[in-house]
Design a protein that fits this description.
Blueprint: E1 2-9, E2 12-20, E3 26-34, E4 43-44, E5 50-57, E6 60-67, E7 72-75, E8 81-86, E9 92-97, E10 101-106, E11 114-118, E12 127-130, E13 136-142, E14 148-154, E15 162-165
Antiparallel strand pairs: 1-2, 2-3, 4-5, 5-6, 6-7, 8-9, 9-10, 10-11, 12-13, 13-14, 14-15
Length: 184
């Protein structure tokens, strides 16, 4: 859903959210051009009406919410964040602060941030998925090995993250399939 614009800021050109069909033909653009963050982890809401977009601004990287039906772009974080994921129902956003803390807030930006968990060892590692039953959040973290492995954090209760998969070469961008999850 991202397409380049003509403006260039070094190696990362400004982008505009762009809907394309399966053949690559542009259908429409949404919002204004923005400077993307390195990971370009744009996340569509479950109903595909909104997107979380990491945008580089004069104060660093923050998350913006693009309303794809109303063609609006609203700033969501103001203290720095390069990653966010939608709750299974699309009503909340879990966002990653640069200090390793992970917070959840209403997707419309109202209310206060609720602390959810702390990424134990990798402050800049991003949450990658939220289980469809709302019980677990997947993310990568390092356990002194130099590579990432898959961790889970319960969304309720003690919220203490635990390593789910340990591999010799690393596990990245974990996605949770529908169904039961248990401790490994």
């Amino acid at each position: 859903i991202v397409g380049p614009n003509s403006g260039d800021h070094g190696i990362y050109p400004d982008l505009t959210l762009t809907w394309v069909d399966r053949t690559g033909r542009r259908l429409r653009t949404v919002g204004k051009p923005f400077r993307p963050f390195l990971n370009e982890s744009i996340r569509l809401s479950p109903d595909e009406s909104q997107a979380i977009v990491p945008v580089v601004g004069k104060d660093g990287v923050d998350l913006w919410i693009a309303d794809l039906n109303r063609d609006t772009f609203s700033r969501f974080t103001f203290t720095g964040s390069a990653s966010g994921i939608w709750s299974p129902d699309g009503r909340k956003v879990l966002w990653a602060a640069h200090d390793g803390n992970r917070y959840v807030r209403s997707a419309d930006g109202s209310g206060k941030d609720e602390f959810l968990y702390h990424n134990p060892l990798c402050l800049l590692c991003f949450p990658t998925d939220w289980s469809s039953d709302g019980k677990f959040i997947a993310f990568g973290d390092r356990l002194g090995k130099g590579h990432l492995d898959l961790w889970l954090a319960p969304a309720a209760g003690d919220r203490k993250p635990f390593q789910y998969i340990e591999s010799p070469s690393g596990t990245y961008e974990g996605q949770i399939s529908p169904g039961k999850i248990g401790r490994a």
